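Readers of this paper often ask what the protein records in our data store actually look like. This encoding replaces a full spatial description with a residue-level series of whole-number codes. For reference, a complete record is included directly beneath this paragraph.
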Amino acid sequence: MKVISSVKKFQIIQYFSYFYTLYFAMSVGRQKKHINPDKLSEIRTIREGLLNAETLSQNILKGDTTSLSKAITLLESTHKKHQKEATALLEKIIPKTGKSIRIGITGVPGVGKSTFIEQFGLHFIRQGKKVAVLAIDPSSPVSGGSILGDKTRMEKLSSHPNAYIRPSAAGSTLGGVAKRTRETIYLCEAAGFDVIFIETVGVGQSETLVHSMTDFFLLMHLTGAGDSLQGIKRGVVEMADAIVINKADGDNIERARRAKNEIQNALHIWSPKPGNWLPPVLMCSAIENKGIVEIAQVIDSYLEEHKKSGHFENKRKAQQKFWFNQALESQLKTDFYENKTVKSELKNMVKSLESKNSNPFVLADELLKKYYQRLSENT
């Protein structure tokens, strides 16, 4: 008799749960006209109350992960009412944040990030820490969907009471992170998590945004895929605080050693990082749980040195300024496209772009002038 793995069982349960929820929703839709309107209003009130900033903040500060998940969903919502509550929520919880260690982890697809994070997370849990994992999955450019399967890939970690895993879709956001990853870090810190991993979608030209929200940036590398530095963008390597060569086991150990030497030689030709920190190159085997302790020791040494020198605090202050500017740009963009004049003129201009004689740069300049003119008229 063929034994079904626990991961497969989990997936089967997920499928049945999905179809049951779909069936239930359809049933409620058919029976909605028979439900007492007063009862429906009561249900809506209770549901909205669960997304109330005051209630969520109180529960999050108590370490309630269910409320944490609801709060993250609230952050990710584009509904105006939800955005207002999300802003109020952040105002309440941000003063309680800043005590965790934020570790960014990136690497090419297939390097073994999920397996490594599971072993690394369990290591910190054995030390009495609480661990949160924010796993960012790539989104399809066609359907916009994401698999979000990190909980099944980190089976042991996801079932531990001192761990929390939140998969999120990258959507159209560049930088290897989701749109509200920065705010989600705050929520996890407020919920009492000591170590927060941010797993990016993979290495590319835009995979550096995670560096602006973490204390330690770890680049994972895979051997046996051609030249050791092939496919890794220089910008990512320069931002790395340590490079880990994963899957250094079995017949791959010798290749891992060669890759380690090649990368170490390459790193010496680049400018030193702040504090004269030279990113170490380490080998590990996540599947055999080897090298995990050594990587944790490197992170401890890095944090100890940078806290003594003041670089740790300066880095966080610089990150705050960066995200302040990012928030301003995002809000300005939103205000621009929600402006009535812009909405009206934009439709006509988009249609005119179909003409070969239209100049997109001139049209953009005209639209901005009309936007600023309307602003000045309203002030």
